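Slide 14.
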Amino acid sequence: MSGVQDELLRSLVKVATALRREGIPFALTGGCAVYARGGPATEHDVDILVREDDARAAQKALVACGMRAAEAPEDWLVKVYDGDSLVDLLFRPNEIEVTDEILAHAEELAVSSVTLPVMPATQVMISKLLVLDGHRCDFTELLPFARALREQIDWDRVREAVCHSPYAESFLLLVRRLDLVQAPRMERSAS
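Slide 15: predicted structure.
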């Protein structure tokens, strides 16, 4: 594990501890959630889902434990830094509002020295695929994720959720052609 990954995990422990102490519901998502579920390590940032009503309180709680707030140009998240580690507090990723129902899908998993709610691999894959567009269509992080967690992902559910995105469909075709996933349920039953 790299020094950057170690720093991210230390930041994650601080985040989980502070949010739990304040009673703010949250769930780990993004690359750290992939890592928590057995996938490859990430060196990018820590992504945390929170409800919009809790976002500023979460940011304030993290600042109170030594992190620094940062302005986000986007209107769907707030940011803090723990040293050089970026923590994104997402409340409307991909224009999907974070609700109690979404947070309830998270499972308690041990990550580093804490147990915290982690989003299911299916939800994380959907979220990552919905980011793809003409300017961001890099599969290099997604392929190792798909390969490592393929048995934890409900691929039919992913297909349904991203069917409007040609970029996501391209990725799904690629993982199918690489024999990482089975054909869609309809095609399997027709055979």
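Speaker note: The mean pLDDT is 93.
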